[in-house]
Amino acid sequence: MIETFRGIWRFAGKEQRNIRRSVIACFLGAVFHMFEIAAIYYTILALLDGKTGPATAWQALGLLAVSILGSAVTKYFSQLQQTHAGYFMAANKRVAIGQRMKSVPMGYFNDNSLGELTGVCTTVLDNVETVAPMVLVTMLGGMLNALVFMVMILIFDWRIGLIVVAATAVYLFITSAMEQKSAALAPHRQKSEAKLVEAVLEYIQGMSVVKAYGLDKDSGQAVQKTVDESCEKALGLEHSVAPWMGLRQITVRVFAVALAVCALVLYSGGSLPLTRCLLMLVASFMLYAELESAGNMADNLQMLGASMDKANSIDDTPVMDI
After folding, report:
1. Whole-angstrom Cα distance, residue 83 to residue 134?
2. What is the pLDDT of residues 179-195, one digit of tens each?
3. pLDDT tens, residue by residue, 274-288
4. CB 125 within 8 A of CB 87
């Protein structure tokens, strides 16, 4: 996982600044999201103190308005920087590939397929352009936000905080195990996807020859075989990670219930005030949202890493000494 992060960061090149800005905006968005919890806590305190007048409602509404407005602005800015970074990091790579192809030996395409190169510049880099910045920003931002929430809960009540720490550790362990499982299959999935693009492009480009010599049956069977192979690799990858994804979701739900039960037990024992107990019951539905968001993005890491490795492999193409 860490190596894929480094790979995305190196691949970004000049766009690292925009990715950094997007991560900061994502973190600030989580800070504004905390205003929702503050509004809930303030409302609970007011209700328990018997302050049910309009002033309480307006103050809670003000906190919610700050949360919604701040979250909207930071999310817009974060996504804008992600889009800019994704487009230009892929565009710069396409330009670099084009520049390198100008200097390859004349016999290069006798041993290498133009369709494969086209597939790298289209499907492979399109995957990097669309997914890479989003994965990096969402995972880094989600982990930072989860860490902040975990520290706040530990300060709020260390006993409940230990449950949050345990949930985070188990969730990350399962995600890491899933990444190791998919690491062996993701390169084959990416290779079959690129091969599919290559086969379709070669079929379309050679359509005149196919019609002239009546080769439509043979060419169609070859393309269909490539499609079937790509589907098989994709399903194999999904089947390998599906149990881990389910286990990850179960982990989050179990620890959310454990957090709520712990709050009720501590309140029944008289060691947790009612206000904090109610707040923890509400927070149990919201606390792991950022961690889940980061974990969902981790599902794309290995496929993304294979795509970047494929694009970077063009840099090893031999060139003529001009």
Report:
1. 8
2. 777 766 666 776 777 67
3. 888 887 887 777 777
4. no
Q: Is the pLDDT of residue 298 over 80?
A: no
The span from the CA of 136 to the CA of 20, in Å, is 10
Residues 6+ apart with CB under 8 A from 218: none
The token pair at 228 is 């079937």
Neighbour-count burial for 7-37, b at 16+ CB within 10 Å, e otherwise: bbeebbeebeebbbbbbbbbbbbbebbbbbb
Residue 59 is predicted with a pLDDT of: 83
Give the pLDDT of residue 73.
92
Take residue 9 and report the two structure tokens written for it.
């960061």
The closest alpha carbon to 306, from 192, 165, 216, belongs to: 192
Query: Cα(39)–Cα(36) distance, rounded to whole angstroms?
Result: 5
Is-contact 185 240, C-beta < 8 A?
yes
**Would you state the structure tokens that stand for residue 190, as one six-digit string?**
């990416």
